[in-house]
Structures are given as structure tokens and as C-alpha cells.
């Protein structure tokens, strides 16, 4: 290794830039900022302004913890990351309308870094990608923009994010971190860097491609397990058997996995499998099981809407023009995250039936809901106003309402559909 490279791979002289300050990037920047100089970079000037004012709108980091990161600064100006020597990329990796990987944020972040990249620098990616994306898609951008040569002038690493939004028990420092690097020396440096903040320990993968693959299959596995339970729920509903009762009985066996049916959205489970299937098809293999699970989970919104419509008809409630209250819009409970929420599928299906849908979610930022989905959540639902009530997200506020609170929102004849098993089986009209 060259002298400049050896000098660069030193934890004591590392100055970090975290590119992308969302649910993944901010907790990482804060944790590193407690121990070493870090510049948190984001192109969203409003996000930067709020963080400089000491508040995180995602609620992943509270104000006190944000203030505790004494070595952390924020900027949306690329020149402010020019003197860093380790760049960690934590931008989103969504899918497009055709369910194909959209690497645009990743490529743009790589272009930004390429403009300030120097000899001896390391670029670490955390965004979920398919195996090979770091070295095949990102590194060429870094080389083209910087004019530097990969693994001679600069180096790369991959350490997949494992953030679980809204989870206050499993945090960045308490979840084992997978690490990797483009050379053995870089892999050792990347591993040591994360080991300095992750108390749960690290797992050094033998290559970047292995680390990328490990990440993408984590959520693919969960997606398939939920798809199985969703299909079982459809079957049991047709048989008149309560799915939750079946799962509780089966769960008494020590090795039965505790999954529950539901709408599969969010930034990971509903997206990551498409990254893997895209790469598989690119190399000539058409996945069958993975795509079957995706199709089933993607169809659950339409299934839920159809079940509600049937229940309304059974009560002789006129469907067209009926009012339905959707309780919850976020993709999971007790979290403001709207990314890829599949509640929207239920809403649009119901609207196609001519049903008027009000959305109530105390966790949601109204402006974000309007921007992302064209929906304006109501501030408070009316009493005795709804023909149907769908408990779509198990927010604590909804659980505390209980059956009486939820029923008070419905008209004399209404349908209460509990998607999340919040209420006992005899207190709702429908369960998934």
C-alpha cells in the first residue's frame, strides 16, 4: 500500500461526511458526531435548517441527543464536505412506477462526492442495493467525476443500514453491523470505524458483493414470510376461521415464526425484493417465489377494500357515496414515516368504488401527505359520521381509544375493520 493510503486509513485522523440525513443518515451522523468530526450533508435546505435549529422531524433522534453530538455540523453546500476523507452515503434507493430500482439518488450522491474526492479517500455506501451496484454503478461515477482510479487513488466500502424506524429498542448501536471494503485493508478500516460506535459488534463480510446480498435478502425473507401469512389469512377468511386464533395456536410450537398478515410497505420490505429480482433477471434468471410473494403482498390493498365493500353490502349500506374513516396512513405504528405506505392502496381502491374516504393520522405531517399522495388528513374525525372504519395502523392513540371510542365514530349501522388485531375478536366486524 502507498504511503498516502496508509496515512488515510487512520481512525484518529478521519473526518466523516454523511450524505443524506433521513431515517438512516441522521442517527448515524449523530452517533459518529459524539466521537469525531462529522459533516451531515443533505440537499434539502429545509431539513438542514430544522436540524441546525435542533429538531428532527422524523423523531428518530430526540432534541437532547441531537444536541449531544458536539462534533456534528450540518450543511447543504458541497464545498463544506471537501475536507472530509470518509464519505458515508445513506440516501434512499426507491423503486419507480414500474417496480424497477431507481438509483438516481445514489448516482447523484456519487456525483456530489466525486467533485470533492481526493487521493486516499474512502466512500462507504449504506443504501440498499442489489449485489454489484457499489462497484458496477457507483464507483464508475466516482471515477468519471473525480478523475481518480478505484483501489489505487480512492477506495470503497459497503455497510448496509439496519435502521428500523420508530423502534426505540433496536437502535443503531445495538444492532450488529455488517461491514466490507474494496481491499482487505479498507475492509479492516471500515470494520474498525463502525466498531467504534456499534456496541453490539460487527460482522466483516468477505466482499462488498456479499454484504450487499446479505442486506437485500434480509427483507426479501421477511416479505415472503408475510406473503405466506397473508395468503393463509385469505384462505382462513373464506373458511370462516379467525386467522389470529390459528396463529396463536400454531405459535405454541417453539420453531413457528411469529409473523402476522398485513399491508407490506415501508422503505425496505416492500422495495428490497425488487432490487434482487431486477439483478436476477439481468443475469438471465427469472425468480418465481420472490415475485409471487411480491404480487400477493402488493394485492392486499385491493383485497382489504373488497372485504370492506362486501361487509357494507351485507349490512345494506349503499356503497357509492358511503363515508369511510381510514385510521392511520403511515407504513407502521408510532412513526411518522410515509415512505411506500400501502394504506394508500386501500384508499384508492375504496375511492374507485365511489366511497368518500377521510384519513386520520396524528403522526403524519399534513404537508408531506399532500405532497406524496395528494391526501389531506383530517385533524379530527366526526362522531357518528362513518359507514366504515378501518383500523389500518396500530398507533398507540388508536389502541387507547378502544372499541367504544372507535364505534362512536360510526353511524348506527357501520362496519369496523381491524387490520392490526388491536381489538379482541368479538369487538370488530372484520379482521384480516
What does this structure look like?
With 432 residues, the chain is α/β, with parallel strands linked by helices. Helices cover 40% and strands 13% of the residues. It is built from 15 helices and 13 strands. It has a six-stranded parallel β-sheet, with helices on both faces. The protein has a five-stranded parallel β-sheet with strand order 10-9-11-12-13, sandwiched between helices. Strands 7-8 form a two-stranded parallel sheet. Helix 5 (104-114) runs parallel beside helix 6, helix 8 (208-239) packs across helix 10 and helix 12 (300-314) packs across helix 13 (343-352). The longest helix is centred in the middle third of the chain and has 32 residues, at 208-239. It is elongated. The chain starts with a helix and ends with a strand. The model is unreliable at 1-7 (pLDDT under 50).
Short description:
The protein is α/β, with parallel strands linked by helices and 432 residues long. It has helices at residues 3-8, 25-33, 45-52, 63-68, 104-114, 133-146, 184-195, 208-239, 243-250, 272-282, 289-298, 300-314, 343-352, 366-373, 396-407; strands at 16-19, 38-41, 72-75, 86-89, 122-125, 155-158, 177-179, 202-204, 323-327, 356-360, 386-391, 410-418, 430-431. The N and C termini lie far apart (59 Å).
How does the SSE layout of this entry go?
Blueprint: H1 3-8, E1 16-19, H2 25-33, E2 38-41, H3 45-52, H4 63-68, E3 72-75, E4 86-89, H5 104-114, E5 122-125, H6 133-146, E6 155-158, E7 177-179, H7 184-195, E8 202-204, H8 208-239, H9 243-250, H10 272-282, H11 289-298, H12 300-314, E9 323-327, H13 343-352, E10 356-360, H14 366-373, E11 386-391, H15 396-407, E12 410-418, E13 430-431
Parallel strand pairs: 1-2, 1-4, 2-3, 4-5, 5-6, 7-8, 9-10, 9-11, 11-12, 12-13
Helix pairs in contact: 5-6, 8-10, 8-11, 12-13
